[in-house]
Amino acid sequence: MKKSFAWLATLALVLTSGLSAAAAAYPDKPIHIIVPYTPGGTVDLLARAMAPLLNKAWGQQIVVENRPGAGGSVGAEYVAQAPGDGYTLLLSTNSPLTTNVILFKSIKYDPLRDFVPVILAGQNALVLAVNLNLPAKTVPELIALAKKEPGKLIGASSGNGTTSHLSLTEFNKRAGVKITHVPYRGGVPSLTAVISGEAQLVFSDIVPALPMISDGRLRALATTGLSRSGVTPDVPTLDESGLKGFDVTAWIGMVAPKGTPADVVDKLNAKINEILKQPDFRQYITKIGIDPIGDTQQAFGKYLAAQIPVWRQRAIDAGLKVE
Fold first, then answer.
1. pLDDT, tens only, 271-294
2. Which is more confidently placed, 19 or 66?
3. What is the rounded CA–CA span in Å between residue 199 and residue 157?
4. Shortest CA distance to 240 belongs to which of 256, 255, 253, 221?
5. How would you classify residue 14: left for phi > 0, otherwise alpha for psi between -120 and 50, otherwise beta?
6. In the structure, what pLDDT confidence band is assigned to residue 2 with cuts at 50, 70 and 90?
């Protein structure tokens, strides 16, 4: 019996040593960070800013690979089917890991079953911007105007099911108003519609809206996070403006395929946390509209699990239908 226990202890030591050796050697070949969107967007810029810092730390090539399609689901599915070895990673907004799973029957992955959370890198709030001719300079004034003429105000969005659209839905719900939603083919067209007066307001990503706010073509009323955005510190939040608890932010997280060793995930998490704390890096991503976060992989796992039913309810409130 003692010999049996001794053999099991030795085997456990060998297995543990093997895993530690694998983690110690990681990475020993190029790492591919899959961005499920076209080049030039916020997530792509974040990945390309992170890549040279990981390369410098580990001496391995970090390849940023764009795999757009189906609102980010094409890239997410690619990573879900990749080997769980830490060499193929997904850096994505919340959509492929929350909303898309609800909206598209064709998706062949489960965000909790098929991925291992690595880190919540950051979040970007949206800005509520209005046409200059709209007689509302604050959120309470906008709500009063919307209640006075239900359905008359038009809220543009960057498309059905986007964070822009769901922010408007959440606003209608919490403020008890009815603002008519009109989707446009992207963020810039929705902003243009508000400037021209075709629509009266929009929930927009902050960075593309900022030049139009700065030069006086749009008026910013509030942002959608619980804390003020680093790139628009003078603009109050909706929470501050009377809609207590309003929090609709697009977040950016990294996940790995299931089966990725825990110590490899630990190594990735620790290094990216270090990068997120670097002042120059923080300053850069704040300028592109991302408020850096960083935390343990366990914290991100809990956050992801909690976010799925939240976004499901927002999709139901918006009347979105499964395709």
1. 999 999 999 999 999 998 899 999
2. 66
3. 10
4. 221
5. alpha
6. very low
Q: How far is CA 29 from CA 62, 260, 267, in A?
A: 9, 15, 15
CATH 3.40.190.10 range(s) for the chain read 125-223
Confidence of residue 164 (pLDDT cuts 50, 70, 90): very high
Long-range contacts of 294-298 (CB under 8 A, 24+ apart): 294/119, 294/120, 294/121, 294/122, 295/119, 295/120, 296/269, 297/116, 297/117, 297/118, 297/119, 297/265, 297/266, 297/269, 298/117
CATH of domain 125-223: 3.40.190.10
Strand partners, 89: 33
Domain with CATH 3.40.190.150 in the chain: 24-124+251-317
Q: Which amino acid is at 286?
A: T
Of 286, 304, 287, which is closest to residue 295 (Cα–Cα)?
304
Q: Which residue has the tokens 């508000």?
A: 194
- What percentage of the chain exceeds 70 in pLDDT? 92
| CATH class belonging to 24-124+251-317 | alpha beta
Cα–Cα distance, 262 to 16 (Å, whole number): 12
- Residue 94, pLDDT above cutoff 70: yes
